[in-house]
Amino acid sequence: MLNERVEKLLLTPVLLTLLYTTWVWGGGRLSFHKPVLWVAGLLLVMLFLLPLFLAPSVERLHTLGRNVRKILLDPFFFSGLLFVAYLVIQLWNAGRTLVFDIPSAGWIYSQPRVPGWPSAFTKKEALQMIEWFFPAWVLVLTLRSDWFQRGTLQKLLYIIVYSSGLLSLFGLVQYGSKTHSIYWQTPLDCHFFASFGYSNHAAAYFVLTGALATGLLFREIFRPGEKGKRLRITLLILSTVLCMTGANLSLSRAGVILAWSFMLLAAIYGLKRAWKQLSPAARANMLAATLGIVGIFYFLVAGFGEEAIINEFIYGADKLRPDQTILRMLYTELAERPFLCDAAWRIWKDNELFGIGGWGYRYLLALYVQRKFWMNVGLQGGGWANVHCDPLQFLLEFGAVGFGLLLLSIVMLLFAVFRQAEWRSSLLWMSLSGLALVGVFSLIDLPFRCPAILYTWVTILAVMPKLTRRETRVKLRGTPQ
Length: 481
Description:
This protein is mainly α. It is built from 16 helices and four strands.
């Protein structure tokens, strides 16, 4: 009884964090994202102290002690705590300004208050790193705790998927209205989709949630029937189609490629699994359903955005004139990447241990690129605040120490999956495919600098061990999920 009450109370801030960041600018606007930090702080307090208020008086201390002990024994608790503490040190030691150095006759940035310690250029930008990563740490801690059971975690994933489908539907309506203002309120001079002001973020998010929806769909198809199964399958099909349509109508070239690649992978996996597990009649139904889903997906995408997608691939949308060639477009798109990455690598080599702090790259980039190449990296335009390679940017921002702690936290989550998960689970395979695709995307762009993607990504990874653990095979007597 106590577990159920605590679970319900903890679920509210978890859902609030995930849904708010997704629907409100994808968490990308700092002014709108600040409430999430306070919700995360409240969630952390609730996670440790709720038993004090809900447990019977005799059991309070015992329950509290057991709860705290379980959380403290989670290795992710320490790796994440150390990383958050590292970000706090960067915030405390932030404050560097551009000054003219007379001996070298050049411009340099001053040292922080304590040279040689982790630091950042401004406190506001250092605080944003905490606003991103602290809620992610608290989310994972909460979902990995003993308070959350498999049934509730499964409901959480369904809510994420249905919400994502509705968000994509909202994006379709917004796209169809041909408005140039996101939410029909704020004008943007770039392409946007749904709640994401940056099209590549929209693409990564909808590929991720579309993969999750596909995993839940296969899970429903390949396990024994339950009450309400047909309704869930119908809703999951709609969510999958809407999410992948959203990834396409984001007009992100990488998003389009990833969405169709995943759909091909999912179709092959589903049909192969059906041929092994289902009866001949069920196989025919599965084949017809697969062709139907792909067909609906294709015609929905073609009906809304075929011309725009073709223009994006051929002409690069508004980046190039129609009289320019696709080779010129590819050169323009790719030529800046080596400059950005080379500069980022050299900046890190000069600050290997502790990095330069959150958003520090934009302050030093011009000093590491010769003036004659400024046009190549867009220094006289926009978009140069990011390396467009998340691992490299986090490495130079947090240094070997901070990036090592961040990487260790991810390894802890992956280790739990490899140690506990049932590898015959279709939910696991499809979800990991979505997580991996976003990871690949992060090598050429910046999906993990979007809170909506970051929180959804770590949530899916955190709940997989419980939802796909090996004991399910024994309980279901060989009926894989």
